[in-house]
Amino acid sequence: MFDKVLEKVSERERKFPKLFIEYPRYTRKVLSEKMEVCLKTMGEYLKALKEKRIIERAGSDWGDYWKVNL
Questions:
Q1: Tell me, what's the pLDDT at 1?
Q2: Strand-pair partners of 65
Q3: CATH architecture under which domain 2-68 falls
Q4: Residue 31, exposed/middle/buried by CB under 10 A (0-12, 13-18, 19+)?
Q5: Which sequence spans correspond to the domains of the chain?
Q6: What is the pLDDT of residues 31-52, one digit of tens each?
Q7: Is residue 18 within 8 Å of residue 49, measured between CB atoms?
Q8: Bridge-partner residues for 53, per DSSP?
Q9: How many Å is the Cα radius of gyration of the chain?
Q10: Distance CA 35, CA 1 (A)
């Protein structure tokens, strides 16, 4: 099922849901370091995944996290 959802994303974008499952509270800065891209590029990846409804930000201002929609 996980692979079926990821068919509509790029090769690099496929890595994000796996990272969010590993630890859903990663910040953009930590994600950009892990993926070795700048913050602007990270924002573009996250925006694309949110538009495709693969990920979403959930929780409160102090306890928010990335939710993977499978």
A1: 47
A2: 58
A3: Orthogonal Bundle (1.10)
A4: buried
A5: 2-68
A6: 999 889 999 999 998 998 899 8
A7: no
A8: none
A9: 11
A10: 24
